[in-house]
Design a protein that fits this description.
The chain is an alpha/beta fold. 50% of the residues lie in helices and 12% in strands. Bound molecules: 1,4-dihydronicotinamide adenine dinucleotide (NAI) and 1,3-dihydroxyacetonephosphate. 1,3-dihydroxyacetonephosphate binds next to helix 7, helix 9 and helix 10.
Length: 296
């Protein structure tokens, strides 16, 4: 009935949770994993409900390679990011391959490690098809509280943008700028992501909830966050390629920052924090020069 596609940190955590409710759930990934219920991709595609948890920048290629197999499937997307090649949100990418009524998105403050420990977690499931969102919410055990919403744009932008602000927060921490500075950065980051999201039709309230402020506060304040750790290490002068090699897992904010920068340039949206993160990552701008420009 349910297949999790992607067995990285988040895919394996979601599978751990769902398996407690849906005993015959299965999981698959590019590389075989020693997980009970691990099956081939073809086997996983036999189920009607798919939960896709692969790196956001890989989704378009994955869907193109499997375009026939995903037809009419009910899909829950757990990835957080904006495609920086097509400059499209993930819902737009999926709509190139299936109907928007077959797609839902799940996002919120959820470190994989804590989900694997069955710690209380709250997530939003957003879809233009609220019945589908409700159906997916039934797959989760009691320690995961799910909220249903139709603001797909807002939930997507919130989950993607918070990773970019988390990198900036890590830089702030790494430069030892203090709690005042970090609080200012995070609060302005929330305003910035809401401004960006509203341009694309998102609801402002979404950014006040778990998908927005909740996930931002979590990710921008913890070394459990890969994106936060990217920022910490950038502030210490490490090279991005070395940081990502050491991480061994995806830091989506690195790639999302480019998508936000280019979309903001294209549509003249004011995104000062994301712009500086992009310049630090892709133009090798000095972090202190970036800080001065942000404060000016
Ligand atoms: N780790 C966490 O705490 C959370 C992560 N997420 C999101 O979940 C998504 C996956 O992240 P993680 O599992 O944490 O990262 P990860 O780096 O542990 O796993 C990434 C997964 O994507 C797969 N993948 C990468 N490129 C692929 C391709 N071309 N084709 C097929 N599969 C491919 C990898 O095999 C791996 O299974 C990201 O968008 C992340 O933002 C969301 C909430 C929590
Ligand atoms: O999305 C997450 C928590 O909600 C995980 O954050 P990182 O990708 O920064 O580790």
């Amino acid at each position: 009935m349910v297949s999790v596609i992607g067995a990285g940190a988040w895919g394996s955590a979601l599978y751990h949770a769902i398996k407690q409710k849906i005993k015959n759930a299965v999981i698959t990934s590019r590389h075989k994993r020693n997980i009970e219920g691990f099956v081939s991709l073809d086997e996983a595609f036999k189920n009607e409900y798919l939960i896709i948890v692969i790196a956001a920048q890989s989704i378009d290629d994955f869907l193109r390679e499997n375009r026939e197999k995903i037809k009419n499937k009910k899909i829950l997307v757990a990835s957080k990011g904006i495609d920086n090649k097509k400059l499209k949100f993930l819902n737009e990418i999926f709509e190139e391959y299936t109907d928007k009524n077959n797609i839902a998105f799940i996002s919120g403050p959820s470190f994989a490690k804590e989900v694997k420990q069955n710690k209380p977690t709250a997530l939003v499931i957003a879809s233009k098809n609220l019945n589908l969102a409700e159906k997916f919410s039934e797959f989760f055990p009691p320690f995961i509280k799910t909220y249903i919403d139709d603001d797909v744009e807002g939930v997507e932008v919130a989950g993607a943008y918070k990773n970019v602000i988390a990198i900036a927060a890590g830089v702030c921490e790494g430069l030892n700028l203090g709690s005042n500075a970090k609080a200012a950065l995070i609060s302005r980051g929330l305003v910035e992501m809401a401004r960006f999201g509203e341009f694309f039709g998102a609801k402002k309230d979404t950014f006040l909830g778990v998908a927005g402020s909740g996930d931002l506060f979590l990710t921008a304040n913890s070394t459990m966050s890969r994106n936060y750790r990217v920022g910490l290490n950038l502030a210490k002068g490490k090279l991005l390629e070395d940081i990502l090699d050491e991480l061994g897992e995806v830091a989506e904010g690195v790639f999302t920052s480019k998508a936000i920068y280019l979309l903001a340039q294209k549509h003249d949206i004011y995104t000062p924090i994301a712009n500086e993160v992009y310049k630090i990552l892709y133009q090798k701008k000095n972090v202190l020069d970036s800080l001065k420009d942000l404060m000016s």
